[in-house]
Amino acid sequence: MAELQLRDIRKSFGAFEVIKGVSMDIRAGEFMVFVGPSGCGKSTLLRLIAGLEDITSGTLAFDGETVNHVVPSKRGIAMVFQSYALYPHMTVFENMSFGMQLAGKDKEQCRKRVEAAAEMLQLTPYLERLPRQLSGGQRQRVAIGRAIVRDPKVFLFDEPLSNLDAALRVATRIEIARLHRSMHKTTMIYVTHDQVEAMTLADRICVLRDGLVEQIGTPLELYERPNSLFVAGFIGSPKMNFLSAAFAAPYNAHRIGIRAEHLEIVEQGGEWSGTVVHSEMLGSDSYVYLDVGADEPVIVREGGTSRHQPGQTLRISPTPGQVHRFDAGGRAIGRVEMRGAA
Ligand SMILES: Nc1ncnc2c1ncn2[C@@H]1O[C@H](COP(=O)(O)OP(=O)(O)OP(=O)(O)O)[C@@H](O)[C@H]1O
């Protein structure tokens, strides 16, 4: 378990600055998730923490000690990548124990650690198999097991589940959450594109944008109190509905944002009305897409099966207190109880 301090970290590749001054504290035992659009620098930041890339300027400290010039093998980290990078000619047991044997660990100690990790990851029946005799999810668990046996202070994950199909992704995600709990809360830093992974695994999420931190907070903080249009649009699925001009003016905002679950279809009155252009049924919920005359259809969540057909006119109202307001620069200016109240 280690605490990390990042102070004004910058990274350039030649003249191209990718990380532009990132500062944050990652608490001991915390599960921190980095999200952000493609190319914003998530993997680069993780690789700087791992020591796989040199930091151009700024300070990186583990438990108060600067590690900028400490080689990766001496940082007490273990990293799991999207590609499992297992040795194809070695069994699961050998793949997991190889690193320890290289480090000169006692054979018996290696065996015990591998068996304990295999137990934790439900890999015990597969220890004598070769990687090609395993499913993708099992291979990724071996890669995670190989990292566990090193008993790292900090675990780094770079999109570890993105090669897996949907069902395996869910199963392995639950496995990782369980792992975090059972490893006495080893500090974990996890890069992902996946909303659900970020929301369900993270103690805190860091949203990166163009090499800078846009917002750091618990999943619920980011979901309920995004500090910018960018975070509001990035966190949550379906995306928050954004409305501008005549829709936002009564709220004294440049733009307003309302989540699909905070719009209610009403029989009478209603703040806006629109035509149903599409509806999606997910089983437990439905999403109704309404053309209210804005740039894009507004998405409204309905519990159960939608009763609404394309072409039908519906009236909708936002849930009081759930209208997010944004200024012309895209900064949040808080939610309001009702229109005209700001
Ligand atoms: N070794 C390198 N040399 C030059 N440019 C690089 C290098 N590594 C990364 N970059 C650039 O740095 C930027 C950030 O890359 P990075 O892989 O960190 O982004 P990311 O947020 O992880 O993206 P993705 O979600 O697509 O994986 C990109 O523009 C990338 O092309």
From TrEMBL:
Protein name per its UniProtKB record: Sugar ABC transporter ATP-binding protein
Gene Ontology CC annotation, any one: ATP-binding cassette (ABC) transporter complex, substrate-binding subunit-containing
Membrane topology label: Peripheral membrane protein
One family name in Pfam for this protein: TOBE_2
Positions of the ABC transporter domain: 4-235
Main location: membrane
Superkingdom as given in the UniProt entry: Bacteria
Family: Belongs to the ABC transporter superfamily.
Keyword Translocase: no
Keywords carried by this UniProt record: ATP-binding, Nucleotide-binding, Transport
Compartment(s): Cell inner membrane
Gene Ontology molecular function: ABC-type maltose transporter activity; ATP binding; ATP hydrolysis activity
InterPro entries cross-referenced by the UniProt entry: AAA+_ATPase, ABC_transporter-like_ATP-bd, ABC_transporter-like_CS, ABC_transpr_MalK-like, ABC_transpr_MalK/UgpC-like, Mo/tungstate-bd_C_term_dom, NA-bd_OB-fold, P-loop_NTPase
